[in-house]
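thread from #wetlab-drylab

HS: before we spend reagent money on co-crystallization trials with pyridoxal-5'-phosphate, can we at least see a predicted complex? here's what I'd submit
DV: go for it
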Amino acid sequence: MTADIGKNIEQIDQEIARMCSHAGVPKVAPRLIAVSKVQPEERVRTALEAGHRSFGENRVQEAQGRWTGLKSEYPDVQLSLIGSLQTNKVSQAIDLFDEIQSVDRIKLARALAGEMQKQGKNIPLYLQVNTGAEPQKGGVMTVDLPELHQACKDLGLMVVGLMCIPPADDDPSLHFALLKKLAKREGLQGLSMGMSSDYALAAAMGATDIRVGTAVFGERDYNQPT
Ligand SMILES: *Cc1c(COP(=O)(O)O)cnc(C)c1O
């Protein structure tokens, strides 16, 4: 399995480049964020040794355990937080991550602004949008997005894009199209959308970031200690 990880990354990169040129997407192919949550360190190391540097994690504590050491070994790693963030973890998150893609409420934006000032940082942020209006899911509701974005700007935060996780059994293209429309309306360039099952579609629809776990590393084993 680990032997395939470098090849998986290469194939996904080629496929998204092909999709972009086929769809006439007039810019560089999206960044492939390899989602390493729950994966054994051996697989993550294989991706690093294959030269991959962009990774995503969805939990601060798990990411700290894995990446504090690996980031000092590989200082050019770019780590994205793609999971929901509690305000009591903001300090650790700002310390570890190079960007946060899951900003979804004003209270969190305020906490991030305060903590970044304290740590002398201003990392790029994405606003997560709950495009399916699912009550159990994170993300700002579409009607509340302009207010959240404005609040972030007023706080001096560097918002660069939007992120969404479509409902599992909806056609993802509806959500990708909605996210793109919202980003345009808000004047934002970044579009983080597309996972293992739909990254090619997302790339063709103008994603700037795709977040792929299983198709890079293989299935996650939630029963294994990582
Ligand atoms: C786990 C996760 C992914 C990757 O999911 P796969 O289906 O394994 O590609 C992408 N985005 C978020 C927010 C995730 O939590």
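DV: The chain has a mean pLDDT of 95.
HS: ok that's useful, forwarding to the group
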